[in-house]
Amino acid sequence: MNARRGILSAAMSLALLGLAPQAHAGPVILGGDDLTDHGSISGGTLQEGWLYIQRALANLLGTATITGSTVQIAVLGAADSTASSSDAGAAVHHAAALSGWTVNYYDGSASIDGFFTSLAAGTVKPTVMWLAGTGASNDLDSSEGASLTANALAINSFVTAGGGLMAHGSGGDAYGWLSALLPGISEVSGCNSSGATLTAAGQAAFPGLSNSDVDANAGPCHSHFTGNFGGLTTLAFDGQQRSYIIGGGASTIIQCGQPGQPACPPQGVPVAPTIPLMLAGLTALLGARRLRKVAA
Fold first, then answer.
1. 3-state DSSP call for residue 139?
2. Would you list the DSSP string of 63-103?
């Protein structure tokens, strides 16, 4: 009887976790990379960093929980392009063309500001927001980075509502918005993709990715993250065990733990999509115990 009560107690605890506000938030992938630059398309096949971008976007689109989307991907900070390499806008263009995704491009600070105005009005709602990063051609400039930082709260609200988010790059243009949301985080120069590995959290959140998608096979990285990650966690370590990709799967929140913010999820707590599976397992375990009692 005590064992049964323990199982039921665990099931109730997991159910309560599933009702937490972050259960409806979206997946996030933030990298200190310029894999937009270290990628290409050849013979209709994406190579290196662009292949990683395609696979990561597929995971985000598959796990985002936002509803009523008007377009699948919103690219912020790059124009549409058909270039075959080293172009941020082209990386998404070719990934989308091969995968059948719809994309809107917002190039220039005025266009980015207009996007956030439309997002607030509900006339535009992507499933995934993709920030073009730095280090390639056709990517973020300082004015576009400033626009992202000015709209940091809108980015946070989008993720909290279940939207997916992916970002690349280094420096204030790429991650000024993240520092605005998490003042305790630092994006630090220095990264070695040789020997980079996905963490257990990275593998669980994005099972479609493998180590070869994030290590030197994809391309180099240039920075890593330290400090207070808020509701984010390390998804991949570089070859020196530094956090160079951070984020989380479905139910990830960015801001947490401060006054007026939700509590940060404890490390090791499963994300919402895994909770029904665990409850099903607990139910099966209880059923097996009943059968053993009947047989006895």
1. coil
2. H----S-SEEEEEES------SBSBHHHHHHHHHHHHT--E
Q: Taking a C-beta distance cutoff of 8 angstroms, is the pair 255, 182 a contact?
A: yes
pLDDT tens profile 115-165: 999 999 999 999 999 999 999 999 999 999 999 999 999 999 999 999 999
Please name the residues in contact with 73: beta carbons below 8 A apart, sequence gap of 6 or more.
57, 61, 92, 96, 101, 102, 103, 104, 126, 127, 128, 129, 130
Range in 31-40, 63-72, 106-115, 268-277 with the lowest mean pLDDT: 268-277
How many folded domains does the chain comprise?
A: 1
Its domain, for residue 178, covers: 25-269
Global pTM reads 0.83
Report d(CA 229, CA 243) in Å as an integer: 10
Which DSSP category does 21 fall into? G
The answer to the question of residue 128 being in a domain is yes
Within-domain flag for 228: yes
Please check whether residue 8 lies inside any domain of the structure.
no
Give a yes or no: residue 200 inside a domain: yes
